[in-house]
Automatic annotation (TrEMBL):
Matching SUPFAM superfamilies: P-loop containing nucleoside triphosphate hydrolases
Keyword list, A-Z: ATP-binding, Membrane, Nucleotide-binding, Transmembrane, Transmembrane helix, Transport
Protein name per its UniProtKB record: ABC transporter domain-containing protein
TM helices/strands, residue ranges: 354-376, 388-410, 430-457
Keyword field contains Oxidoreductase: no
InterPro entries in alphabetical order: AAA+_ATPase, ABC2_TM, ABC_transporter-like_ATP-bd, ABC_transporter-like_CS, ABCG_dom, ABCG_transporters, P-loop_NTPase
Location in the cell: Membrane
Organism: Lupinus luteus
Membrane topology of the entry: Multi-pass membrane protein
Amino acid sequence: MGSPFKPNACTRKNPYRLETKNLSYKLCSQFDEYKSLCFGSNPRRGSKYILKDVTCEARPNELTAIAGPSGAGKTTLLEVLAGRISLSKVSGQVLVNYRPMVADRFRRASGFVTQEDALFPSLTVRETLMYSAMLRLPGVRKVAATRVSELIKELGLDHIADSRIGCGSSRGISGGERRRVSIGVDLVHDPAVILIDEPTSGLDSASALKVVSLLRLMAFNQGKTIVLTIHQPGFRILELFDGLILLSDGFVMHNGSLNLLETRLNLAGHQIPQHVNVLEFALDAMESLVIQTSDSENSQLLLIEKEHQDHMMRMQYSKVVKEKALLYSNSPMEEILILGQRFCCNIFRTEQLFVARVIQALVAGFLLGTIFLNVGSKQDQVALHTRSGFFAFSLTFLLSSTTEGLPIFLEERRTFMTETSRGAYRVSSYVLANTLVFIPFLLMVAFLYTTPVYWLVGLRKDIDGFLYFSLVVWIFHIKGKNTKLLDFYALFEPIQVPI
């Protein structure tokens, strides 16, 4: 059951070895945290352990799989290894090259691919990778274009490079191709570590094998440390894994090679049938495996695992220099330009939304104008109250119409969280880019609304008054849009959105 690849792997200049020691993570509900603030109780008392005394490792040049039944803690362990769960919330150690992990630096130097693809349906494959490269790679656009061309070829996406991603009703690329694009987005800056949550979820067996084979070749040929979670892999996929971390109820039942797992099962008195793979059998015979902790492994198994170790690579780890502080790849102005260009591309390919918005402004302008026809020319008390009603209706329309970009923001939400958590750009750059892109469109909408309504209502009959009214409407549009945008993103946790 060993890997079909021979041990002549590429040696990376700065390899990354990930390790956890006696790691435990207890999930606290918001109610428990509220009780601790109000009454001083321990928020972790009565909470459920997701991970318990987990000791495991992932090494360069190897593809390591985290497996186990549903609810075993696979995704949680992957998120801890990726630095996406605050280390202040866990007990034990998370080490990178034998040093404690610095989460914000590690997130920028690694790649993390979530189970759900965070891609823009309106962008093409090449555009998706290009914008990611421009945000993650310092230097001129030509460098990013060269890297994207190499990556498209490496991922086998040449034939769909200029096809839109698509989703739902808009037909686009296949599920397996989407997964490869998602992986490519986190490969543009050539990270030494890649962590992927369920890369084969929702894929047929052929697509799943293609994705995992691609990851295995990357680990072998480029010296990367690749860790993924998986539920029930088939024979051919299982053979591609160099290491396996088997979890059950938060405990590590096995940490090592598939050969070692087979040996442990044999020592426990099991005979694995030929038509059943080792992992499937281990999941059914979980109770016969002794929980592995740093103190529980017997000497025979330690000897087997020791023969599996690569001592030369361990010597190289000690020579890896201390990590330097990683800054943003681009200046704030460059980030605004790149994000603005991407946002323009998205909104101009969402024609239905903006055609509807233009029609809405015209219809509302004519409708309110006919309802309050010529009330501005009258000066009595009733006309004054009527004008007040007109301005109240106008204000209601302006505030309710500031959600024209909300579908786009909802579409971008997952991408925004992912990109900011890895330090691709500043939150302030994102907000400014969105505002600047919308300013011209909102100005057009303001004029489409004010042109009929101002003259039909009969307000001050001069061009200065019309322009001033249009300016006020435009400012209300901008203010309302930005308020909704800031409120929308203020819901995110600080660890996910570093400023």
